[in-house]
Specification:
mainly alpha, 10 helices, single chain
Length: about 190
């Protein structure tokens, strides 16, 4: 029994209808399969194979230091220019995804708990938080979570910072104990 071209087109339509990839035969009822005949992973493999040179050029271009610096500056300018828009989008995301926010705070609580050297410092740490002025926040001089260093949740690693300054600092670290060189970059960019 031979299969004609019309039969193959009919079979392909049927496969698209049930959400089956023609390449790997994976069955999925997601909306991607309603209009395409291959799944996302098969499409990505095929795209990467047929565009190797272009992707290589793009990767090399993005990894150059001057391109990274230019991109970082434009990103910071965008953040400064669209501060309200970004704030609203973050608040909207937090409202729609309350569990992800809960997970973030739990992750931070666990980090603080694991980075406290001794229970005897707990009273001193609580006292520091209680004596924090209203317009200030308690900040870790050496951040708890940074790609280069992980500070400790101990009294000598805590300081009071203005709320805006603390938000700008985030978890930046310049390699020194005072950790003040990060502010020079922000002053330079604004």
């Amino acid at each position: 029994m031979s299969i004609s071209v019309i039969d193959i087109k009919y079979i392909n339509k049927q496969l698209v209808g049930i959400g089956q990839c023609n390449t790997c035969q994976k069955v999925d009822n997601s909306s991607v399969f309603k209009t395409k005949t291959e799944c996302t992973s098969c499409y990505n493999k095929r795209y990467r194979a047929s565009n190797k040179e272009y992707l290589k050029i793009q990767k090399n271009r993005r990894s150059r230091p001057e391109v990274k610096a230019k991109s970082a500056i434009s990103h910071k300018k965008y953040k400064i220019k669209n501060k309200e828009k970004i704030r609203l989008a973050k608040n909207d995301y937090r409202k729609r995804n309350p569990l992800s926010r809960k997970g973030e705070s739990q992750f931070r609580k666990n980090a603080i708990k694991n980075q406290t050297i001794s229970k005897r410092f707990k009273e001193q740490i609580v006292n520091i938080y209680k004596t924090c002025p209203d317009n200030m926040q308690v900040d870790h001089i050496i951040p708890l979570l940074n790609k280069d260093v992980c500070g400790l949740h101990v009294p000598w690693n805590l300081q009071f910072l203005d709320k805006e300054v603390n938000n700008l600092k985030n978890n930046k670290w310049d390699g020194t104990y005072n950790n003040t060189n990060w502010s020079v970059t922000w002053v330079y960019l604004s």
